[in-house]
Amino acid sequence: MKKLYDSIDSMTETVVSIQSELVSRPALSPDNNGTGEREKADWIIGFMRDMGISDIREYNAPDDRVPCGHRPNVAAVIPGRDTSRTFWVIAHMDVVPVGERSLWNSDPWTLHRDGDTIVGRGVEDNHQGLVSGLLAAKAILEANETPAMNFGLLMVSDEETGNDFGLQFIADNHLELFGENDLILVPDSGDPNSTQAEVAEKGMFWLKVTVNGKQCHASTPDEGLNAWWRPRPWW
Q: 132: domain CATH number?
């Protein structure tokens, strides 16, 4: 592992180069007046092929609102010693709009670098997830190492506007992609030391309560039925 960590630590310029390419390809949902993720997906596929990854699959969700007619979802796998299990790194390719353009000090679609700080639409959400997986794959291949289990990358569309054409589409139509003993990492949050593992980013609990009563005016409480308790005469 130290060999892989050292390799990744030396990839600063690679990070900048990848981020620059990703930022220049907006990947906005048609819900945000964009043309989808196809251009970004094509660049990522080319990058992975150049790295030496041969097992690359596409799971395209039909969407006639974009020029290519679909929203791409890309899976890539590096075989491990145990091919029955896969460690997946999942990230999304789409980004949100730039918002108020006047609030940007640089072009949102051109990477701006200031020392170790980079600025551009999507560099954190979720390019850092894409780059993390790509760097890990690059380190594994360059070290000529065979991981303990398969190492998988899954890059999906439509996370920012509902997942219907992204991970939800995969779950509904291609659940065979995952095994019951697979491990899944979604690098969407963490700390500078990369030691934090977040179990869940958000949670939601819906509670519906139905009560029955009869509305009345406060001057005639005896004519109503309070939903929580039966009224008593005031006298």
A: 3.40.630.10
- 93, part of any domain: yes
Taking alpha carbons only, the member of 162, 159, 166, 176 closest to residue 62 is 166
Residue 224 included in any domain: no
Using an 8 Å Cβ cutoff, are 125 and 22 in contact?
Answer: no
Whole-structure pTM over 0.85, yes or no?
A: no
- Determine, yes or no, domain membership for 202: no
Q: Which of 57, 56, 16, 60 is nearest to 38 (CA)?
A: 60
Q: What is the pLDDT of residues 97-106, one digit of tens each?
A: 999 999 999 9
| CB of 158 closer than 8 Å to CB of 29 | yes
Nearest CA to 62 among 86, 39, 33, 38? 38
Residue 112 lies in domain: 2-185
Q: Are strands 149-156 and 82-92 parallel, antiparallel or unpaired?
A: parallel
Q: Are 47 and 18 in contact (CB under 8 A)?
A: yes
* 3-state class (DSSP) for residue 153: strand
- Pairs from 220-228 (Cβ < 8 Å, separation ≥ 24): none
Over the stretch 3-62, which tens digit does the pLDDT of each residue have?
Answer: 888 899 899 999 999 999 999 999 999 999 999 999 999 999 999 999 999 999 999 999
225 assigned to some structural domain: no
Q: Which pair of structure tokens corresponds to residue 227? A: 């939903």
Domain count within the chain: 1
Q: Give the active site residues.
A: 94, 159
